[in-house]
TrEMBL record:
Domain of life: Bacteria
Stored InterPro entries: NAD(P)-bd_dom_sf (IPR036291), NpdG (IPR010185), P5C_Rdtase_cat_N (IPR028939), STEAP_metalloreductase (IPR051267)
Keyword Nucleotide-binding: no
Gene Ontology terms, MF aspect: coenzyme F420 binding; cupric reductase (NADH) activity; ferric-chelate reductase (NADPH) activity; NADP binding; oxidoreductase activity, acting on NAD(P)H
The protein's name in its UniProt record: NADPH-dependent F420 reductase
NCBIfam families documented for this protein: npdG (TIGR01915)
One Pfam family here: F420_oxidored
Residue ranges annotated for the Pyrroline-5-carboxylate reductase catalytic N-terminal domain, each copy included: 2-102
GO cellular component, one term: plasma membrane
Gene it is expressed from: npdG
Keyword Nucleotidyltransferase attributed: no
GO biological process: copper ion import; NADPH regeneration
Transmembrane parts of this sequence: none
Length: 222
């Protein structure tokens, strides 16, 4: 099962490519610049342990075509809708996993939600009802993802309007060795995406004795 990561040459896309490939999931790394994607894919492959799946660098359209079921969108918010417009034809029959957070321009400690309410909802509105859009992996530190000797230190909240697609994405995320939870329909993305700037604020604060924090869902002890 090959997955595509569009925007895969950015920090979060690279980290996810490493993690999925190490978990045995082949990755098609997509970029507007196929040559750059190829160079980065080779660099990432050199970091993987023996027995990992392949990472292949491709142009965005070719990466989408290579994906069996899942296409992960990992571009900056400024390129979110433009990228979806460019790849939408190839998304037929696949699930879009939108990890994008609409951070405010010039201030990543705040969100600037689109009129639809969240990036996940904006993607669903743009693509229409036949292409399921699932929001996930919003709150995972890119730095943590890229450190393969570190465990992913958070849980993942998954939301979207199509329950069957949501459950499939939960199982995909679990291959990374993390807990993934069904957080409800796409409107939940308004809350989930808004957690990211709070984490950024904490992680850069001199008053907090840690960085690269995530969130976890804790069961009661009783």
């Amino acid at each position: 099962m090959t997955i595509a990561i569009i925007g895969g040459t950015g920090p979060q896309g690279r980290g996810l490519a490493l993690r999925f490939a190490r978990a045995g999931v082949p990755v098609a790394l997509g970029s507007r610049d196929a040559a750059r994607a190829g160079d980065i894919a080779r660099d990432l492959s050199d970091r993987l342990p023996d027995g990992s799946a392949t990472i292949t660098g491709l142009a965005n359209d070719d990466a989408v075509a290579a994906a069996d079921d899942f296409v992960i969108l990992a571009v900056p918010w400024s390129g979110h809708n433009r990228t979806l417009d460019a790849i939408r034809t190839g998304l037929a029959g696949k699930i879009l996993v939108d990890i994008v957070v609409p951070l405010a321009e010039g201030d990543p400690k705040k969100v600037d939600m689109p009129p639809e309410g969240s990036a996940t909802e904006a993607a669903q509105e743009l693509l229409g009802p036949d292409i399921p859009v699932i929001g996930a992996l919003h709150n995972v530190s890119a730095h943590t993802l890229n450190q393969l000797d570190w465990d992913i230190n958070c849980d993942v909240l998954v939301c979207g309007d199509k329950l069957d697609a949501r459950l499939k994405v939960i199982e995909l995320v679990k291959t990374l060795g993390v807990n993934a939870y069904n957080a409800g329909d796409a409107q939940s993305a308004r809350c989930i995406e808004a957690i990211t700037p709070i984490l950024i604020r904490l992680n850069i604060s001199k008053a907090v004795p840690f960085t690269h924090a995530g969130i976890r869902i804790w069961a009661p002890e009783h």
